[in-house]
Every structure is written in structure tokens, then in C-alpha cells.
């Protein structure tokens, strides 16, 4: 492993070895999209600053907003004689309009989480979550409060695209001079499972696989940075500690390999054996990375995020089997509503699609 690591690092800093190539195109149906235009099924939605256009509907300056994973549904919280919830489809049809009488107007922790099936989860009072059905009716509530008398950051929600697996987590909890975190899976009313609880490690990132079968937590503490994979019942399946300042971790489609990354380096592990297969450094700040086991190729999206816009975007491809690397600037501007929704799909031999952006990136790699 040490030899492989050394070779990859050498290649990544040797411009003379760049005989490889990457071709990057936009999905043809999205090639005319501006940074503010996002695909929503057969249509589009426009997000410009705090202004939103969904078909015939225009929403200005909401206190909180959320688009479903496909952007086909969106919910907004507005302050007007209290807090009001509105939920639309991408065509601008209003499905839910409801005054939230249990919300305190001065609460600055309110948030909304929209799902494609119409369901919505609302957050208020730092750690209280209200689950609504597609009609906007309250199904149940869950308190995610840690109970720490020293305070905690606002609780967060992570889910798969369909909302079938939902994790509520406290990213930072104060315990005197120390900080920790916790995470629980929500199965239904009065049915939760606290599967992670630490007084030493803060949660940096939570990702749930598309199927909802696996949960990946990235944590940071005095003992280093750790990526841990759990099944949907909270059973620990794999754990890897790194001396890198990890910002994310992703599973491939079959959940057989884990890719962990800091802003400057990517590492890939085989979950069954626990072996590190390879790693590579990046000249640009890494925002997302994934792995194709069949081609033994790492694909990383680099750049810097400014609001929704990804500035100076770049694709890096690393072949672990061939010990080769290729880099290419993305030849057009891209943006994202949520960096945690960026995902890698294998579309063919050394061909990939990167979704979760205003335009899908079609990437072909030649080593």
C-alpha cells in the first residue's frame, strides 16, 4: 500500500505525465441552463438569491426553504402574522398552505425538509421535529434534544432521496469544556434508535445511501477523524480513522467500497477486507469524491463553493490499477442547491454522470 500511495502522489504532481484525458460535457437537455436554473423533472425551477420561481409561482425572501431531491417539490416558511408553511410542485401548483401556530415567530432555528412524495419535516426550537404527511397534516413529533445543560447546536436531518431512512443528529453538543454529538434513526412515532453517542467527537457529515440501507457518519475529535458505515438499523459495519481533516465520505452503488476525503486528499477502502486500495492528492479543494470498483477509478469534483456557485470547478480521475491520473477543468459554470446531494453514477466503461448540480456532468475518462 505504501508503494501505491507514493506513486499516486508522485503522479499528481508531475505535469509531464498528463497523457491521459477527460472529456466533460453537460447533459444535452441542460446545456443552456444558467447557474440559477435547476432541472425539475420535465421542467425547471429558478433560484436567484432568496428569490424562487416555480412555474407560475414566485416566492420571495422565505425564512427557510427546501427542495426535494428531484426538485419537483419545494416547501417554504414565511413570516407573516406568525409562521406559515407553503408547499408547491415545480409547476407552481400550491399543495399545502398552513399556519404553524405551534411555531414561535421569533424562533431563528426554524427549518423545513421536503420530500418528493409530498411529506415534509419541520424543525423548530433547536431540536423539535414535526413530521407532516402530503396533505400537510401532522403525523407525529420527535424531540432530538440531547438534554445537555451546556447547550447544543441546532439539530440536523439527513435522509435518502425518498425519505425512507431519516437520521436526526446533533452535530455539536457542549459538555463543559468538551464537545460531542449524537445521532438517531427515526422509524416512526415514538420509534427511534440512538445509534451514535459521543462526548468526544463532533459529527461533520452524514450521508445515507440512495436505497436507504446504509448510513455513513464522518466525525472529528481528539483521536482523529473517523468515517463509520452503519446499516439502516444502526449496526456498525465498518470504521476507518484518518489523520486527514475529513469533510465527507461516500459509498459506491453496491456499498462495497468507501471513499473518504479531505479538502486535499481522497482515500478508498474495500469494506469487506478493510484494505486501503489507494489514495491521491488534489491541487484543487475537493468538494466530492466517489469510486468505481470495476474500473478501479476515483472521480473527484474540485473547486470552491461560493453560495450556490462552484468556482473554478475541476474533475480529477485517478486509476488505481494503472497508477495514472487525469485532470480537466469543467468548461462551463456549475452550481448546486445542496453539496450533500452530489452523487456519482457509472454509465459505462470509464463513463460517469455527476448529479446534484444545476446540470449533470457527463464525464468520459481515457487512461
What does this structure look like?
The chain is built from 1 helix and 33 strands. The chain is mainly beta. Strands 26, 27, 28, 29 and 30 form a 5-stranded antiparallel sheet that branches. It has a 4-stranded antiparallel sheet with strand order 1-33-32-31, with no helix packed on it. A hairpin with a 2-residue loop joins β31 and β32 (351-355).
Task: Give the helices and strands, then pairings.
Layout: H1 2-12, E1 21-26, E2 37-40, E3 43-48, E4 51-54, E5 57-60, E6 64-67, E7 73-79, E8 83-89, E9 94-99, E10 111-114, E11 120-124, E12 128-132, E13 138-143, E14 156-159, E15 166-175, E16 178-188, E17 191-198, E18 201-208, E19 214-221, E20 224-231, E21 236-242, E22 248-251, E23 257-261, E24 265-270, E25 276-281, E26 286-292, E27 297-306, E28 309-319, E29 324-329, E30 334-335, E31 343-348, E32 351-355, E33 361-366
Antiparallel strand pairs: 1-33, 2-3, 3-4, 4-5, 6-7, 7-8, 8-9, 10-11, 11-12, 12-13, 14-15, 15-16, 16-17, 18-19, 19-20, 20-21, 22-23, 23-24, 24-25, 26-27, 27-28, 28-29, 28-30, 31-32, 32-33
In short:
The protein has one helix and 33 strands. The chain has 367 residues and is mostly beta strands. Strand 3 and strand 4 form a beta hairpin.
Low-confidence stretches: 1-18
What is Rg?
21 Å
Strand content: over 45%
The largest β sheet comes out as: 5 strands, antiparallel
Shape: globular
Secondary structure category: mainly beta
Individual helix count:
1
> Termini separation (Å)?
21 Å
Mean pLDDT: 93
Amino acid at each position: 500500500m505504501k508503494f501505491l500511495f507514493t506513486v499516486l502522489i508522485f503522479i499528481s504532481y508531475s505535469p509531464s505525465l498528463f497523457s491521459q484525458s477527460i472529456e466533460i460535457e453537460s447533459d444535452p437537455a441542460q446545456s443552456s441552463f444558467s447557474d440559477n436554473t435547476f432541472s425539475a423533472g420535465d421542467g425547471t425551477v429558478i433560484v436567484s438569491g432568496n428569490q424562487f420561481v416555480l412555474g407560475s409561482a414566485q416566492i420571495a425572501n422565505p425564512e427557510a426553504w427546501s427542495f426535494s431531491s428531484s426538485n419537483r417539490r419545494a416547501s417554504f416558511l414565511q413570516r407573516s402574522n406568525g409562521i406559515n408553511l407553503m408547499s408547491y410542485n415545480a409547476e407552481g401548483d400550491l399543495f399545502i398552505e398552513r399556519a404553524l401556530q405551534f411555531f414561535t415567530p421569533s424562533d431563528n432555528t426554524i427549518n423545513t425538509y421536503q420530500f418528493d412524495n409530498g411529506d415534509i419535516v419541520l424543525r423548530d426550537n433547536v431540536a423539535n421535529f414535526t413530521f407532516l404527511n402530503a396533505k400537510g397534516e401532522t403525523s407525529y413529533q420527535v424531540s432530538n434534544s440531547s438534554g445537555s445543560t451546556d447547550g447544543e447546536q441546532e439539530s440536523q436531518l439527513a435522509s435518502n432521496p425518498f425519505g425512507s431512512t431519516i437520521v436526526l443528529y446533533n452535530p455539536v453538543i457542549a459538555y463543559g469544556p468538551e464537545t460531542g454529538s449524537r445521532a438517531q434513526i427515526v422509524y416512526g412515532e415514538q420509534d427511534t434508535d440512538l445509534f451514535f453517542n459521543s462526548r468526544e467527537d463532533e459529527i461533520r457529515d452524514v450521508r445515507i445511501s440512495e436505497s436507504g440501507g446504509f448510513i455513513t457518519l464522518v466525525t472529528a475529535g481528539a483521536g482523529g477523524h473517523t468515517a463509520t458505515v452503519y446499516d439502516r438499523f444502526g449496526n456498525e459495519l465498518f470504521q476507518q480513522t484518518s489523520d486527514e481533516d475529513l469533510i465527507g465520505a461516500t459509498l459506491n452503488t453496491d456499498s462495497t467500497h468507501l471513499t473518504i476525503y479531505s479538502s486535499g486528499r481522497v482515500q478508498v477502502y474495500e469494506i469487506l477486507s478493510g484494505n486501503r486500495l489507494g489514495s491521491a492528492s488534489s491541487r484543487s479543494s475537493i468538494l466530492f469524491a466517489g469510486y468505481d470498483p470495476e474500473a478501479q477509478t476515483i472521480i473527484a469534483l474540485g473547486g470552491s463553493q461560493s453560495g450556490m456557485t462552484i468556482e473554478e470547478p475541476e474533475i480529477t480521475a485517478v486509476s488505481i490499477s494503472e497508477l495514472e491520473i487525469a485532470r480537466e477543468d469543467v468548461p462551463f459554470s456549475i452550481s448546486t442547491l445542496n453539496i450533500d446531494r452530489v452523487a456519482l453514477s457509472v454509465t459505462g466503461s470509464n463513463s460517469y454522470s455527476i448529479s446534484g448540480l444545476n446540470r449533470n456532468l457527463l464525464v468520459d475518462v481515457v487512461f
